[in-house]
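To assess whether ligand presence alters the predicted conformation, the chain was also submitted together with adenosine-5'-diphosphate. Input:
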Amino acid sequence: MMTQTAQTNAAPLGGDQSLVAMVPRINIHAFCDNQQTAETMQMAAADRRMARAHTTIQLGGIMAAVQVFQAQSTPNVLLVESHGSRDVILSELGALANVCQPDTKVIVIGHLNDVVLYRELIRQGVSEYLVAPLHQMQVIETIASLFQNPKSAPLGKVLAFVGAKGGVGSSTIAHNTAWMMSKRYATETVITDLDLAFGTAGLNFNQDVSNGIYDALGQPDRLDATLIERLLTKLGDKLSLLSGPGGVDRDFNVEAHAVETILSAMRNSVPCIVVDVPNMWAPWIKYTLMHADQVIITATPELASLRNAKNLCDMLKQARPNDVPPKLILNQVGVPKRPEIPAADFGKAVGVDVSCVIPYDAQTFGTAQSNGQMISEVSAKSKAAEALNGFVQILAGTDKPAKKASKMSQSLFAKLPMLRKK
Ligand SMILES: Nc1ncnc2c1ncn2[C@@H]1O[C@H](COP(=O)(O)OP(=O)(O)O)[C@@H](O)[C@H]1O
Ligand SMILES: [Mg+2]
C-alpha cells in the first residue's frame, strides 16, 4: 500500500532488508523521467538480489515506453515514471495500455502523494504506485514482492561463516552458533557444510553423516522441501545438518549455480541456514559469500589473517552496498607468549569493528572436539562460551531466549509436509 511504501522510503535501511527476496529470472524495463530515478534504478539493478533479472533502464517516461513497445513485446515488469499531474498520468497510461501485454506487471513511479490517484491506478490493474524519490531497496522489495507467494513461510536467513585463513576456528564457531540458535532461540536451523573433503560438522556433533550434500549439489534443480528433508541429518530438536561424510575419494566440482539453488530452496522452509564455507578461493565460494544475508569472518590476531580479512571485507563491502558489512570475530586470542595484534587495532585496519573476541582455550575447545560436544556443553561458564553467547545475541538481534515455540520455530519436519502441498 502507498502508506507503507512511504514509510519504507523514510527509513530504507532501518528494517531487515537482508530478508528481501531474490528477484527471479525476469526481464525488467524502466523508463525514468529524471536522472536521479535512473541512478536509483541502476543501483537497484546492481544489487545481489537482482542478479538473476535482466534490467534495462532508459529515460523518457511513460511516452517513451509507449513508443518502444509499439514495435516489441513488453517485459515481465515495466516501471514507468511521470512528473505529471493525476490527469496526465492517467491519460499517458491509457496510451500505454494499448501496447502492454496483459501479463506484464506495471509499476508507476510518480511525484504526487495522492491516494485517489493510487486507488485509480490499482483499479486499472497497475501493480504498485511508488512516490519518488525512491531508495533502491524500495524498488527491489516492490519487484520481489510481485513474485512472492504471500502465504509462503517466512524467508530464512543465510549466515555464511568463512575463515580469514585455515584453522582459525570458523567451522567451530559456525557449529556453535547454529547450535545456540536452535537451543537458546528455538530457531529451526540447518548447517550446510560446504567443505566436502575436510568438513568437520559431523565429527563436531558426533554424528554419522550421509551423502546428503553430494545428492543436493548433484541435482540442485530437483530440490524441494521434501527432498531437502530426506537429505538432512538430524542433530537435535531444531538442528539439522546437510553435509557429507568427508573424504578424498570423490572428485567433485562445485558449481555456483548449484549452491545458490540449494540455499534458495532452503530459504523457503528453514528460518536459519548456517553455511560453513571452506577456506579457499573459487568462483563458487565468492558467489556464496556475495549472496549470503550475513557474512561472518573469523580471524586470528596476526598479520596474515588481517590481510585476508581486510581483502574479504573490502571486496564484500564494495560488491554489496545495500547489505550490512561482514561481521568480524577475533578467535584464539591470548595464546601464551605469542605476539598479537590488539582487537581495536585489528578492527581499525580491516575497517570493520570486531564483534566478538574469543580467548584461546585449548582445554575447552579440545574437550569439545574430542567429545563431539559444543563449547557451552563442555563449559557453560567459560569465557569462550560467554563470548559465543554474546555473538549469537548480536546475530539474533535480542538477548531474550525463546520461551515457547513460535510460528518461526515450529519443527522443520512438522512444517515440511505442509509446504509440500503447495
Ligand atoms: N578459541 C579457541 N581456542 C583453542 N582452540 C580453538 C579455538 N577455536 C578453535 N579451536 C580449535 O582450532 C581447530 C581448528 O578449528 P576449525 O573450526 O576447524 O577451523 P577452520 O574451520 O577455521 O579451519 C580445532 O581443533 C578447534 O577445536
Ligand atoms: Mg573449517
